[in-house]
Design a protein that fits this description.
The structure holds two protein chains of two kinds.
Chain A lengths: L1 E10 L5 E10 L4 E5 L6 H9 L4 E10 L2 E2 L5 H6 L2 E4 L6 E5 H15 L7 H14 L4 H5 L1 E2 L5 H15 L3 E5 L7 H14 L5 E6 L2 H6 L4 E6 L2 E6 L2 H9 L2 H7 L1
Parallel strand pairs in A: 3-10, 3-11, 6-9, 9-10
Antiparallel strand pairs in A: 1-2, 1-4, 4-5, 7-8, 11-12
Helix pairs in contact in A: 6-7
Chain B lengths: L1 H8 L4 H9 L14 E3 L6 H10 L4 H16 L22 E3 L14 H9 L6 H5 L11 E7 L2 E5 L2 H7 L2 E4 H7 L1 H7 L10 H9 L4 E5 L8 E7 L10 E6 L4 E9 L7 E3 L2 E6 L4 E8 L12 E11 L5 E8 L4 E4 L2 E4 L5 E10 L4 E10 L5 E10 L4 E10 L7 E10 L5 E10 L5 E10 L2 H8 L5 H12 L1 H4 L4 H14 L6
Parallel strand pairs in B: 3-7, 6-8, 7-9, 8-11, 9-12, 10-13, 11-13, 12-14, 13-15, 13-16, 14-17, 15-18, 16-18, 17-19, 18-20, 19-21, 20-22, 21-23
Antiparallel strand pairs in B: 1-2, 3-4, 5-6
Helix pairs in contact in B: 2-14, 3-4, 4-10, 8-9, 11-12, 12-14
The chains are: A alpha/beta, B alpha/beta.
């Protein structure tokens, strides 16, 4: 589904290399997790993949279903089926959450040359999906993320994901700022979207999210590289011993 | 019901974006109708004033009024306090009167109107019902209706729905017709809100106004439909000087829509209008404007110079006026729709979106003059600057000694797109009693890269993303507009900001 080869990325504004040769291969229908200490480049990886400005790819490639995505605009990547659930969802004052969702859904459909979703159909679908995530009608009307609690913001990200039905979902520290109950709700939402045609990349600091979203593969990232790959047990190892041992292993 | 919510009230929606996409990137209304024009000679003199007056078959008193204004104008100096910069206007190099030739024998009904004129309105392509109405087509049963008085250059071409309005006792006609048919009303009220000597441009307008709209709502009448005027400047080098007078008698109500468009030309065009609103006891007027006159090209060539005086006089107790404006066009905008809150418990509201892109300059705002007791005013101004444009909010809130227990709330928000534009807020506040309260809030923000990335990562392209964020910023004002106008205004907001990012 997503193939990342030897990806090197530096900041555009300063001479600072952040990704130093990332190799990752994410198979269709699988859930991969990336763990790693602060500053290892996890969030940068998610931004570069989704097309945020401010980064320069100096080497390597990233292919979504064998199509190179690094030269595509952010919106083209979205239409191609890539979705990033933000660590810090952005507030857009004055724009109703529902309006935002509908604009996004139809923008992607248009880019793919598909028919737009009618207002009636959209409402039906969004209400059903919102209900699963315990998002009430009021939250759909409020401006995007404005005054949302941490949990509401993350649930809202998952609602967007559910509406946009991407093939490749990247979750950037979706557990940050969540209490246990909120995390469970978000995890339920994600699990409901798991199927054999959808791939996930879950970025997290902590094992606890992975108790709820069970990964197939776990990668450890440090200093701009994937330093170790294993099964779910690798996450537990990190939880118990921290990253120090792993970092020493490769030093 | 819920579907309506999505479509209209939630800021921008997909239909709007679709409508915007369908429109080309350049100024959409830049065509020129080939209708033979009848011009008065260039320049301004007493003879021209007399000519305009005689072309409109005006009575003696009207001519005298104009001539007094003209003589006054000669003594006035063009004001220079606004934050706008434009080449000196040569007032002798303008045409002061132009009208389509086919109007020489004035049409008795819309069937007599030159089809090309009607075609002109069609080209405006505005999804309002005006077009059909102008063409004389009855709206289907149950649809909300809008009556139109269209000003094509200087002569009002046709007024619809006269009969039904007449039944309600409402007078809605061109000002020139009103001068002939309702002289007692015109003499009583014309110049009573904006006096002949008010300011340079208003005085000029008083001397040379060629046409405009007149509305009278009798006591206790709620106008059965929204009234609408489409102004359009067509002839090259013609200053358009319309004059609007709306009188809402006791306990009456009217909503008035004004839309403006002008074709694209290299030469700057002058526009100096005067709008007077009179409100008696318990009357209410809503006056909404969507102005998308040609803003000039990216280098500031051409465009409309818009110097407008709009004022409402809440003469009656408990009267209420609401100005809503969406200003996206014009090279230079100089405009301060104001409220004189004379009657006790009267209320004034001003909602404004002013967008300046490329080389546009806007100096706009309002004046709230509190004279009566317990008067209230509210100002919500949203200024958006992009390109190399300058956008200034200039507003006065004045609480006079007798305006006891009066209140004002002002909110001025500025949004900057890019780093070469400017936003300025110049509030003047005068309080001359100790029981009134004035609140002023102001913010300045930039369209945030994170917001744009967030939208784009969900599939919107850059222009859709900017339109969405900006429409969100303007939401409070867009909501104050009548529904038909709100949709058009949303589209305009997006169009006028095209190419402003990236």
């Amino acid at each position: 589904m997503l193939n990342i080869k030897n990806l090197h990325v530096k900041l555009e504004e300063e001479d600072k290399q952040i990704l130093k040769g990332v190799n990752l291969s994410l198979e269709l229908g699988k859930v991969h997790a990336i763990m790693g200490p602060n500053g290892s480049g996890k969030s940068t990886l998610s931004y570069v993949l989704s097309g945020k400005d401010g980064y320069e790819v100096t080497d390597g490639s990233a292919q979504l279903e064998s199509v190179d995505i690094l030269d595509m605009e952010a919106e083209e990547r979205a239409a191609a089926g890539l979705f990033l659930a933000f660590q810090y969802p952005v507030e857009i004052p004055g724009v109703g959450n529902m309006t935002f969702l509908r604009t996004a859904v139809n923008a992607q459909r248009k880019l793919r040359g598909e028919e737009e979703m009618s207002a009636g159909e959209f409402l039906k679908v969004v209400r059903a999906k919102a209900k699963d995530l315990k998002i009430d009608a009021d939250m759909l009307k409020r401006p995007v993320n404005v005054g949302f609690s941490g949990g509401e913001k993350k649930r809202n990200e998952i609602l967007q994901m559910a509406m946009l039905e991407p093939k490749m979902c990247i979750l950037d520290e979706t557990d940050s700022g969540l209490d246990v109950d909120a995390m469970k709700l978000v995890a339920q939402g994600v699990n409901a979207l798991r199927d054999d045609k959808r791939t996930f990349l879950v970025i997290t600091h902590y094992q606890r999210l992975l108790d709820h979203i069970k990964p197939d593969v776990v990668h450890i990232m440090a200093n701009g590289r994937i330093i170790k790959t294993g099964g779910p047990e690798l996450a537990l190892e990190v939880e118990n011993n921290g990253y120090a041992d792993l970092l020493e292993e490769i030093a | 019901m819920a579907m309506d919510d999505v479509q209209v009230k939630d800021g921008v929606d997909a239909e709007t974006v679709e409508a915007v996409k369908a429109l080309s990137g350049t100024y959409k209304y830049g065509w020129n109708t080939e209708i033979e024009m009848e011009y008065a000679p260039k320049g301004l003199s007493e003879d021209i004033v007399r000519l305009i007056s005689s072309k409109n078959d005006e009575p003696e008193w009207m001519l005298d009024w104009r001539l007094a204004a003209y003589r006054r104008w000669l003594e006035l100096k063009e004001p220079d306090w606004a934050m706008v910069d434009y080449p000196t206007i040569d007032f002798q190099d303008q045409y002061y009167y132009a009208r389509p030739k086919s109007m020489e024998d004035k049409p008795k009904s819309l069937d007599d109107v030159d089809p090309k004129l009607l075609e002109t309105y069609k080209k405006l392509g505005i999804p309002l019902k005006e077009q059909a109405l102008l063409a004389g087509v009855e709206a289907p049963e149950g649809e909300r209706r809008v009556a139109v008085d269209a000003v094509f250059d200087s002569v009002s071409v046709g007024t619809t729905f006269q009969a039904e309005l007449r039944k309600a006792g409402v007078i809605f006609c061109s000002i020139s017709e009103a001068i002939r048919e309702h002289p007692e009303l015109v003499r009583q009220y014309l110049g009573s809100v904006v006096p002949v000597s008010d300011n340079y441009y208003a005085t000029l307008n008083s001397a040379v106004f060629s046409d405009g709209s007149f509305v009278y709502i009798p006591p206790g009448v709620r106008c059965p439909m929204e009234l609408s005027t489409y102004f359009r400047i067509n002839a090259e080098n013609t200053g358009q000087f319309e004059r609007t007078l709306i009188i809402a008698d006791k306990e009456s109500y009217v909503s008035y829509l004004e839309g403006c468009t002008a074709p694209q030309r290299d030469v700057a065009q002058l526009h100096a209008a005067v709008v007077e609103l009179v409100l008696l006891d318990d009357a209410e007027i809503k006056y909404s404007t969507v102005q998308n006159w040609f803003p000039g090209d990216e280098n500031g060539k051409g465009g409309i110079y818009n110097f407008v005086t709009k004022r409402a006089d809440c003469r009656g107790h408990r009267s209420k006026v609401m100005w809503t404006q969406v200003e996206t066009g014009s090279a230079v905008t100089w405009k301060y729709p104001s409220c004189v809150l004379r009657g006790d418990d009267s209320q004034g509201e001003f909602y404004s979106i002013a967008i300046a892109n490329n080389m546009q300059q806007a100096d706009t705002g309002t004046k709230m003059v509190h004279l009566g007791k317990n008067t209230k005013s509210r100002i919500v101004s949203k200024g958006i600057s992009a390109g190399r444009a300058q956008n200034t909010y200039r507003g006065l809130v004045s609480m006079h000694p007798k305006a006891k227990n009066s209140r004002n709330y002002t909110q001025c928000d500025s949004l900057l797109i890019g780093d070469k534009c400017g936003a300025h807020t110049v509030p003047y506040i005068e309080v001359k009693n100790n029981s009134s309260r004035v609140e002023h809030e102001a913010t300045t923000s930039k369209v945030d890269d994170d917001q744009l990335f967030y939208c784009r990562s969900r599939g919107m392209d850059e222009e859709e993303a900017v339109a969405l964020v900006v429409n969100g910023f303007c939401k409070e004002v867009l909501q104050a507009l009548p529904m038909e106008f709100a949709m058009e205004a949303q589209a305009l907001v997006a169009i006028s900001l095209e190419g402003s990012v990236g």
